[in-house]
Amino acid sequence: YITILLHYYDVSPLDNFWLMFFYCCLGLITIYFLKFLGLKVTGWLLNVSEAANAYIFVVFIINKVIGIFLLPFLVVLSFTQGTSFKVFLVISWCGLGLLIIYRFLLTFISIRNLVRFNLFHFLIYLLAFEIAPLLLVYKLLLFFFR
After folding, report:
1. Are the C-beta atoms of residues 145 and 12 closer than 8 Å to each other?
2. Closest by alpha carbon to 110, among 63, 61, 65?
3. Which of 9, 17, 73, 82 is most buried, judging by how many CB atoms fall within 10 Å of its CB?
4. What torsion do the CA atoms of 93, 121, 133, 39 make, to the nearest 10 degrees?
């Protein structure tokens, strides 16, 4: 999906689709491995391993659902052009947005049962560890590929 988006917006640094696909897969694997490792270490250091494991479970389950959700869009986006491409792209973004919001809600509910905190702390976490890294990666991609 990321490779198709990079190709569609003409920000792909490589002309070879499969090599770009490999780099995107390698990047995602690295990001999620570091996130997993960081969560495990943080859970162990702060003595909230059960909460960290619950968070990891929710994140990886929703990521699997996102992967299954995107499969039909991958096929459609690979073989369409023009208006239909844009329509399916917007539908996939809406679905991704809803699934990510659902992930945040599930995370909040499951972690709130294990660790006591208020909504303000959750919003600070959300901005610092979920949204800020995405914006930084987006900014770096724009810097390197434009």
Report:
1. yes
2. 61
3. 73
4. -100
